[in-house]
Amino acid sequence: MKAEARDLIAAMPLPAVLIRWDERIDAANSEAVALLGEGLEERHFITVLRQPVLLDAIEGTLRDGAPRKTRYLTSDGRQDTTFDVACRAVTLDRGPGVLLTFADVTQMEQAGQMRRDFVANVSHELRTPLTALLGFIETLRGPAREDAVARERFLEIMGNEAGRMERLVGDLLSLSRLEAEERVRPTEPVDLPELLRSVLSGLAPVAEEAGVALIPELPGDVLEIAGDADQLRQVVVNLVENAVKYSGRGAQVTLRLSEPAYHPRLRAEGVEIEVIDTGPGFDPLHIPRLTERFYRVDSHRSREMGGTGLGLAIVKHIVNRHRGRLRIESTPGKGSTFRVILPLRAAPPRGEDA
Ligand SMILES: Nc1ncnc2c1ncn2[C@@H]1O[C@H](COP(=O)(O)OP(=O)(O)OP(=O)(O)O)[C@@H](O)[C@H]1O
Ligand SMILES: [Mg+2]
């Protein structure tokens, strides 16, 4: 092949392979070598690209010159990857050829899959309380029509189920708002000890009812950080509520705020908010997935307690928006610690990078 054509293939930013009329590979760029392996030139394309749909497409284009599109599935060692492959006819010096280009569409596929999973999850989460409501309406119209005691009980359950649906919709809305503004870093001054104290007093009745002791370990002085007060309150409420909810009677939940210190992970000065419980804990294998929407360690227990499974997803988004970090540790039988590290200031001092 001519040198210019080889240069053109080499200059293409996508994996590209040129196949000749004699079904051998004429040229391949370094992206193609990374994808398909070394020593491609002069090999028969069947020995390199072993996937039947792709082979059919190449043969078809070699035969009739019509462009074709197909898929190539492979694995980069860590995850499955999907390529859209375009087969285009080209005219070479001594006959027809086919130019293959590979476009990595793995992320698009994943985003599509996530969207489908999300819709399926939301529908499922809404359907459960909805089915219960419809069932009770049916019962109230029929068998329980004249039974005042049953009616009261059913109405209470219906109230709970409707409340759960309302919370779910509210949480979904705040998640989508959070996603929309995640890039905008909040800057209002927030007095953290004050905020934490007010969360604790708000949750005191809940903790008391659950038989859980709330223990504050907060500095007495004002400690201001740049943030969004409502969102930070939401973070602490979600974490403390979880600790109270899942720890059970007799447990202790400590809410601790550290003094400001340099945090290497933030490369800046920051503070740590820790929510430490003496509850049942969970297997650390759950930790990487815990902040996914609707992920629950024990889904039966969470649903029973009216949980939507969105609490930690919301926490994660808010912490991200504040350019902070969320760290989770847990030991089965001992308890869990949820640690939020927040930078003290919104903007790094001049001369440092973000
Ligand atoms: N302190 C904790 N101890 C034990 N398990 C916990 C703790 N915090 C969270 N979990 C587990 O993590 C799961 C996810 O928590 P998350 O707050 O996201 O959802 P939820 O509490 O089920 O529902 P929501 O908070 O939306 O009402 C919980 O279902 C629970 O299994
Ligand atoms: Mg929760």
TrEMBL record:
| Source organism of this protein record | Salipiger mangrovisoli
Select a single GO molecular function from the record's annotations and give it.
kinase activity
The protein's matches in SMART domains, at most eight in alphabetical order, are given as: HATPase_c, HisKA
**Domain of life, per the record?**
Bacteria
| Annotated catalysed reactions | ATP + protein L-histidine = ADP + protein N-phospho-L-histidine
List each copy of the Histidine kinase domain by range. 121-346
According to UniProt, the name of this protein is histidine kinase
Q: Where are the transmembrane segments?
A: none
- EC numbers listed for it are 2.7.13.3
| Keywords assigned by UniProt, alphabetized | Kinase, Phosphoprotein, Transferase, Two-component regulatory system
The answer on whether this UniProt entry bears the keyword Kinase reads yes
Q: What class of enzyme is it?
A: transferase
